[in-house]
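Shipment paperwork, digital attachment
Item: protein structure file
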Amino acid sequence: MPSKLLFLPGASGNTAFWKPVSELLDLPAVRVFCGWPGFGSTPAEPGVRGIDDLVARVVAEIDRPTALLAQSMGGVIALRAALQRPQLVTHLVLTVTSGGVDLTNLGAEDWRSSFFESNPTVPRWFAEPQPDLAPELSSVLAPTLLLWGDADPISPVAVGRRLAQVLPRSSLHVIAGGSHDLANAKAITVAPLIDQHLRSA
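Attachment content:
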């Protein structure tokens, strides 16, 4: 089992996003709630200029057997970190994320313009095109729980199914009525699934 839980938010940078789930988990592990410099309430830092820098920050936190719990943009960072620290990442929990795979033909809504209108100070670089991670994901051997909602236009269930195809030790759970804030809004529903997953080999 992991001795550390890293909770990664999405592009909102909301460091409290995962706290309702964390409070419902029985697992005795250190909990760390990550923030992204320049996103939400986390102040910008001159040395953070792209996704690579966020990945490096997460990798630096993986200093013992660690589970990564990630929402939306955080899921891309979690998978990249897992590729760099395969011996220490024990489990992954990914919710409503692209996971770094190509979303073409998966029915995902383009959310970028409305997001930037609502969040004008967020760095634009986070929405720049990234390389397709799908060819690399077959080497991610950490057990992976994929949590999706059936009412999320930003990351529809088809995206979760695609990740389930390329991640060899993954299972997909679809939550009725779940939207893009699934892990926060339905914490009571998803926490038992996460607890069970984190206790599995």
